[in-house]
Each structure stands twice: as structure tokens, then as C-alpha cells.
Description:
Strand content: 5-15%
Shape: globular
Structural class: alpha/beta
CATH architecture: Alpha-Beta Barrel
GO cellular component, one term: cytosol
Number of helices: 12
Largest sheet: 8 strands, parallel, barrel
CATH class: Alpha Beta
Family: Belongs to the shaker potassium channel beta subunit family.
Distance between the termini: 23 Å
Helix content: 25-40%
Domain NADP-dependent oxidoreductase: 15-314
Keywords: NADP, Oxidoreductase
Number of domains: 1
Strand order of the largest sheet: 3-4-5-6-7-8-9-10
Order of helices and strands: EEEHEHEHEHEHEHEHHHHEHH
Mean pLDDT: 91
Number of strands: 10
CATH topology: TIM Barrel
Region (Disordered): 216-236
Amino acid sequence: MEFRYLGRSGLKISEIAYGNWLTHGSQVEEDAARACVRAALDEGITTFDTADVYAGTRAEEVLGRALKGQRREGLEIFTKVYWPTGPGVNDRGLSRKHIMESINGSLRRLGTDYVDLYQAHRFDYETPLEETLRAFDDLVRQGKVLYVGVSEWRAEQIEQALKIADEMGFDRIVSSQPQYSMLWRVIEEEVVPLCEREGIGQIVWSPIAQGVLTGKYKPGQPPPAGSRGTDDKGGADMIRRMMDDDLLTRVQNLRPIADDLGLSMAQLAVAWTLQNPNVSAAIVGASRPEQVVDNVKAAGVKLDADVLKRIDDVLGDVVIRDASKTASPRTRP
């Protein structure tokens, strides 16, 4: 396993992180989830990403039990806050009340005294940003949170938060968690340049585009039985937007590139995201341990300029670079 600094902070994280958005507590049984976590640990992954909303808080519980007994100092545990976790009007958003109650719930479910990174899961247009940042800063001072980050925030939102933090002496954002893959490159235009300048690292989700970049979805054919393209638990809507025969044909044309490099399609996709120097880690999920083992082989892979150009030539205009031209992802990474 290779390790990278999280932005300009002193925290090192495994460049392949394990995430449990669509698996723990929902799609797979707990024994299978634990087997995947054990495989991640065995392969050298030390960074684990979850959120309070995943599987209605159950994902945090499963991850906490799976990591029980591990040396806490050797792990980096990330979680998030924003989406509804209860029926009350204050059981959502980034108000001080919700943040303070949510971190206590997350710590209890994860079985830990602190999280290494606490992330604002979306931008809250209804709460003053100063209130949110002060609450995060208080959690850092209390020792419940070591670093703070954001997920799916736009460049101008991150910039506004940095300005307030600098003016008020709050801990600065050290990470951004966006969707990023060969097919979805929206962050490259504005988010990445800002973050490079400000010392913020990307922890990218969906590097294999919900499985599309594995090549298992074939043009003109229905999704394979049991794949995310056939379920209704959060990933299907996203995949359906990519079930275009032209796009799927181009993905199949990536296979010779992967073969030439001795990589699987998934390994090529994950390795591609890690070529971006602003990316601190790529999050992979799994429902089977062998998927973890396969994805981890992307760690340390270097793709030269000729390979990157071949990939761009194959994908052409199916790459999304401007989110305003398509539906923005509404699911929860």
C-alpha cells in the first residue's frame, strides 16, 4: 500500500480507502461486510470512510464492529454529517444542534472516542456558514474530531469557508470528497485548482463509476443479475444515466489498454484517479473480499502520458466535465 498526505495536513492516509456507502447494513450481510473489512486491513488499507446516513446509521455500526480490536492509532476513520438521520426538523443539515448530536451518535456507533476526519456531507444553504464552521472548530478543540472536510462542495463554497475560517481563527478544511472518475471529471476545472492552491486534498468517490468502468455492463445487453444496475438501493439511478450504448462501447474499448498494462479494468480506473496529484485517496467499496484485493492492486501504479492520452482518445466526448450539462448526482457518496 502507498500512503499520501491529506492535503497540506500532516495526516497520512492510504491512497486506497475503503468506503461502505452501498454495502454495510444494506446490500450485504454483516459477515460479508466484516470479511471485506478484514481483506482491506490485510491489504494494507488503513483509511475507512462512512457516513451517519448510510443505511440509516447501520453502516457506521457495522464498520465499528468490524474494526473492533484493531489498534486505533493505526487507523484513519472518516465519517460525515448533513443528511437526515431522524424524523425531527433538526435531525438534518449543518446546524450546531445537529452537528453536536450527530458526532456523538457517530462516535457511539463506531465505537471510538474520536474520528480522524469529520466531513460536511453537502453544503447547507439554510444554516449560516459561520455557525457550521464554529461547531466543527469546537469539536476539534474537544478532541472528538482531528480534521474537518467537505463532500460535494463547489469551489466557491469551499473558498467562502476558507475565508471565514481564516478571519475567525477556525481550523481550516483539509479535504474535499467529490465524485471523480474517467467519466466524471467535473472537479478538474474549478475545485482542483482552488484546492491545490489552498492545500486541500481530494478523497474521491466512485472511481470506477459505480462499476461501469469494470466493463461488466455491455452495450445492448441488460445489466448482469445481482449488479448495482439492477438494484434499488441508491446506485441504480446513477448507473442508469450511464447505460448508453455509445458510452458502454467506449468503456469496452479501454480493455486493450488495461490488458497492455497487466491491469484489470477496475484497477486501471482506480489508478487513473490517483494520477491526479491533488487526489489523496480513492475510495473503493466491495461486497466481496476479492473485490477489495483486486482494487488494491491499483496502489502505486504509474500511468505515463501516452496511456493517459489513449484513455482520453477512447472516451472522447462521453466524459462529463461540466455538471451543468447533466443531472448532478443526488445520491449519497
